[in-house]
Structure formats: structure tokens, C-alpha cells
């Protein structure tokens, strides 16, 4: 009987100890650690909005985002940071360029400086790792190469890289064009049966469908039967693509200044500039995240282990310090001498990231959009519908909150 009593005391004592340890850990996470970090960052001149227990700075962020989501911008306004990331706007105005904020109990530093961004993104030591997202985000983003770290990432990246070489991409152009021609035929049919021979199309949805179609039919392979018929369409770009496909057999011919190549280069250069400027002002990836895997020196700051660092691309891309007073104007010519010469710092444009984790699909994406635009612009004229509301929003990537209704009119000649 006595023995049982001792065992009971012992078990109860153990349970109390475990409970106390858990309570202390919780206090460390929600109180002491935030307090200690706030003090340590303050000493380095980094301040930020007040931390509230468990919720961090999320409540203020939610309120600001909710209010911003109600705002409709002027169609010509490209100063969209106030709408897509109003909390960063508010906090940087109050606490300066680098500030501390809290995603719940997770500390995070926001930067928008190309020098610091370069240091983080070009790091190969593993000090700035990809954060491990919680299961809610993973269910959207998937657990692909973009989420891996260390040897797993090296292995996945080296397996995927060969799928995106220039020659492989060139071979994909046929399938990309086939998907686009399908979409074009559909638009033409819809315009033909419409009253005024034009049709209003919601472009966001349409392009999501097309992207999905292109990716399943090209990059990741499918048993899609190549529909030779679609290439009867005698469009200029396909001709050029086919002409340059000869590159695979005549090494170096794509560099010869033939009339076809010259026209192609000019077209490509103009389109490139327009696309880069669009990506600068409306970058689909709004911010790039890393997490310090150990205490690390970033510029003049000492960042402890386990802190998120967010590089706010939306702000970096419209910083007047680097892009000039017209930073919020749409001016493709700033890219006339290439990306590295477009601003006062070569890394002020990070639409596809940089360094070892630079976007793997960058060439694929640029090729696709150039091809699709060339095919569309030869066949249709486009006008923004009067129903359009300029409301870019943050849905993990940048999207149009109310879509992009567009009036599409087939051109007579095609
Ligand atoms: C306009 C379209 C696109 C934009 C703006 C874009 C942007 C980006 C950015 C900024 C990163 C770097 C993220 C970081 O540093 O944490 C990235 C990474 C990545 N992108 Fe893209 N991307 C685009 C299209 C694509 C496409 C079409 C694919 C695949 C077919 C792709 C595959 C990837 C992969 C696999 C990574 C992760 C690379 C790694 O962690 O090693 N992207 N992208």
C-alpha cells in the first residue's frame, strides 16, 4: 500500500515537473524571447510595431490589409504598395527602412535594400535558409524544390535544372503555341457569335487556365498528342521560331544577322523591356523570405538564429533612391541596356530572385509570355473594359482582386 502511495507521489511530481517545464517554455516563446529580441534589436537601432502576446503584429496587419482591400486605385496608378502591403508602408514610414515585426511569435525583419538583398540571396553558406512554412501554406505552395534546404535542395535542383536549358525550351515552343492557338480559337468563336463581334474576357482566369495548360503539356510532360494542324496558322513568330530551330542543327546560326534574326532580335528586345517593366511594377512574388539558421551578420546588423528576413520586392522595385523620381511610372526604356543597368544598383530588380536559388522557370516564363503575346497581338486588339477595377492584391502572389475584364476584338486580317 505504502509502495503505491510513493509511486503515486513520484508520478504526480513528474507530471508537475513536465507541466512547469512546458509553462516555462511557453513563457520563453511568447514573452521572454520576444522581450529579449526587441531589446537586442533596439540596441542596433531596429524598432518596430508593438508586439502583442501570441498575436505579434498580426492584428494591426490584418486591419490595415482589410482597409486596403476596400480601396480602388486610379487605373494609371502604379504605386500599389499601399494596397498590397499597406502594413509595410505604415511601419517603414514610422520605424525606417529596416524594422522588426512579428508573425505571431515568429520575429521577422523587413528589408528593401538591394545591397542587403544581394548578401542574403547570394549566400552559399546556408546561413539564410528557406523557412519551413506551416501546413496551411504548404497545402497551397506544395513541398517542392523551393521549400527544401541543404543536400535535398541540391539534389532536386540538379535534377530539375537540365529540363530548363535553352534548347529544351525551344523544343517546348510548339506545344506552348498549340495551347495558345486553342485559346485563340475559343476567343474567336466567342467573338463571332457575340452581337458586336467583340467579347469581354476576364483575362486573369483565362491566363491561369493557359498557364496550367502549357505547364502540363510542356515542362512536366504529358501524353498530349501534338496537334500538327494548329500550326497551319501562318503567324510571324512561329515562322521565326521554326527558322531558329535550325540552330539545333547549324551551330551558331542564331547569332548571324540575317533579316529574320534581326527582326526577331528587335521584337524580342522590345517585348523584353515591356515584360521586365511589368514585372518590376507588378511582381507576382511580392516578397522573398529567408530564416537565419544561425546568428548572422547582415550588413551592420547582428541577426540572431531563427529570425525571418523578408525582402520586400514591391518596395525595392519602386525605391526612388535606385529607380529615380519616376520610379512609379511605367517606362520600359529603363531596361534598354539590360536588367543590371536599369537602376542605380544592379540588384534593384529581383523579380526572379538571384543567386543559387534564382527562379528555375525564369526562361520558361519569359519565353511563354513572349510567345503568347506575339500570337495574341497579331490577332486581336485589346481594350480595358469599363468594368475594370484597379485593385492588385496579395493572394500569396500578386493578383487582380476583381480580375481583368478586357474587351477583345479580332483583327480583320487574321
Ligand atoms: C513570371 C513568372 C515567375 C516569377 C515572377 C517567378 C519568381 C520567382 C522568384 C522570385 C523565385 C525566388 C524565390 C526565393 O528566392 O525564395 C523563384 C523561385 C523558383 N521558381 Fe519561379 N517565377 C516565375 C515562374 C516560374 C515557373 C514558370 C517555374 C517552373 C516552371 C518556376 C519555378 C521556380 C522554382 C522551382 C523556384 C525555386 C528555386 C530554388 O529554390 O532553387 N518559376 N521564382
UniProtKB/TrEMBL annotation:
<keyword id="KW-1133">Transmembrane helix</keyword>
<comment type="similarity">
    <text>Belongs to the cytochrome P450 family.</text>
</comment>
<protein>
    <recommendedName>
        <fullName>Cytochrome P450</fullName>
    </recommendedName>
</protein>
<feature type="transmembrane region" description="Helical">
    <location>
        <begin position="6"/>
        <end position="31"/>
    </location>
</feature>
<dbReference type="GO" id="GO:0020037">
    <property type="term" value="F:heme binding"/>
</dbReference>
<dbReference type="GO" id="GO:0016020">
    <property type="term" value="C:membrane"/>
</dbReference>
<keyword id="KW-0349">Heme</keyword>
<dbReference type="GO" id="GO:0004497">
    <property type="term" value="F:monooxygenase activity"/>
</dbReference>
<dbReference type="InterPro" id="IPR001128">
    <property type="entry name" value="Cyt_P450"/>
</dbReference>
<dbReference type="InterPro" id="IPR036396">
    <property type="entry name" value="Cyt_P450_sf"/>
</dbReference>
<keyword id="KW-0560">Oxidoreductase</keyword>
<dbReference type="InterPro" id="IPR002402">
    <property type="entry name" value="Cyt_P450_E_grp-II"/>
</dbReference>
<keyword id="KW-0503">Monooxygenase</keyword>
<dbReference type="InterPro" id="IPR017972">
    <property type="entry name" value="Cyt_P450_CS"/>
</dbReference>
<dbReference type="GO" id="GO:0016705">
    <property type="term" value="F:oxidoreductase activity, acting on paired donors, with incorporation or reduction of molecular oxygen"/>
</dbReference>
<dbReference type="Pfam" id="PF00067">
    <property type="entry name" value="p450"/>
</dbReference>
<dbReference type="GO" id="GO:0005506">
    <property type="term" value="F:iron ion binding"/>
</dbReference>
<keyword id="KW-0812">Transmembrane</keyword>
<keyword id="KW-0479">Metal-binding</keyword>
<keyword id="KW-0472">Membrane</keyword>
<keyword id="KW-0408">Iron</keyword>
<dbReference type="InterPro" id="IPR050665">
    <property type="entry name" value="Cytochrome_P450_Monooxygen"/>
</dbReference>
<feature type="binding site" description="axial binding residue">
    <location>
        <position position="359"/>
    </location>
    <ligand>
        <name>heme</name>
    </ligand>
</feature>
